[in-house]
Write a structure and sequence with these properties.
By secondary structure, the protein is α+β, with helices and mostly antiparallel strands. The protein has 9 helices and 9 strands. Strands 1-3-4-9-8-7-6-5-2 form a 9-stranded antiparallel beta sheet, sandwiched between helices. The protein is globular.
Length: 339
């Protein structure tokens, strides 16, 4: 089923947003990210033993874990650049201080914190909805990421509605709702939908932006998916699932290679042990030599005892033979004549 094709309206609105952005003179400027999570990050960074000795991902491996166009469908292609609505609708101040951190994080896409290894990012444009999708993946400290996800969930719950004042003084209404991600998606996850609506150059406009963050071990991925004319509701979840599946496959492959290398070292150790045992067998100790000589001495004693027994038996036989001869001789001699 084809989705609504609204390119003309999208081009007009993007042109107005570009003009509005070009007229900006003064940027109020304010910190980006999560102030609360930043303190957690500092604590985690000082405790260096908690950080992995070897990063889970290098830059090259992170790139191989990125989403691809085939994961999204024919309506998507490589991005031509950052959407102009990012500065036009997401850059500003809020009427509720507790919601400022949420807006800053969404605008700067600073949700995962400081990477502890390789990172990579890619973007795609949807020419049917006029939407844009951005996906980044990398190695992070899992305790820090979990703290940020908890904080993000708290902000989603408390900042259901607030007002954004743009750099030109225009006000826009903002609504935040949670996005339920599959429970088996990674080890930890958090999703939200931000809708920013208001009058833009005389035309009522609404930006819909989904954000999904997923942690897998010591790695994490952040996905944003937004557009001025609605977005495909299933695209956020499907893209997150495809990206995490690719990341998990990469991590599984790395673990298998590590186990294989470990297994190749073990037979070598066994071989060395066998050679040492064989060498020790060839080298006989003095006690072994004495033990080897004792059986020979015992054998010689046995032979001497046997010879003595045989000699005794022979002498006894000769004695009996002599006695019989004397007896025969005596019987054969005639008695002496009587006088």
């Amino acid at each position: 089923m084809r989705r609504p094709f609204r390119v003309l309206a999208r081009v007009m609105a993007l042109g107005m947003l570009a003009g509005a952005t070009a007229c900006v003179v003064d940027d109020p400027g304010h910190p980006r990210g999560f102030p609360e999570a930043a303190s957690v990050e500092e604590t985690t960074t000082s405790a260096s033993p908690t950080a992995p000795a070897t990063p889970a991902l290098t830059d090259a491996r992170a790139r191989s874990a990125l989403l691809r166009q085939d994961d999204l469908g024919d309506a998507w292609s490589g991005t031509k650049g950052a959407a102009t609505w990012r500065d036009g609708l997401l850059k500003g101040r809020t009427d509720r201080p507790e919601c400022q951190a949420l807006l800053d994080a969404v605008y700067a896409e600073d949700v995962l914190g400081e990477p502890r290894g390789g990172t990579a990012v890619t973007g795609f444009d949807d020419y049917e909805y006029g939407a844009q999708l951005r996906y980044q993946v990398g190695a992070y400290d899992k305790a820090d990421v979990d703290a940020r996800l908890r904080r993000l969930g708290q902000l989603v719950a408390s900042c259901e509605e607030f007002t954004i004042t743009g750099v030109q003084g225009r006000e826009y209404g903002a609504e935040v709702t949670p996005v339920d991600l599959p429970g088996d998606l990674g080890d930890a996850r958090q999703g939200l939908r931000l809708i920013v609506s208001g009058d833009l150059e005389g035309e009522e406009t609404a930006l819909t932006l989904d954000l999904a963050t997923v942690r897998v071990g010591d790695t994490a991925a952040l996905l944003t998916h937004g557009g001025l004319y609605g977005i495909d509701d299933t695209a956020t979840t499907e893209a997150a699932q495809a990206g995490i599946k690719r990341l998990q496959s990469l991590l599984k492959e790395q673990a298998a290679k590590k186990d294989k290398k470990k297994g190749e070292k073990e037979p070598k150790s066994e071989k060395d042990t066998g050679q040492r045992e064989k060498k020790n067998t060839k080298t006989r100790s003095p006690s072994d030599e004495n033990s080897a000589e004792n059986p020979a001495e015992e054998g010689a004693s046995d032979e001497q005892s046997t010879d003595a027994d045989e000699q005794g038996s022979s002498d006894e036989a000769r004695g009996r033979s002599a006695a019989r001869t004397e007896a025969l001789a005596a019987s054969a001699t005639p008695p002496p004549a009587s006088a």
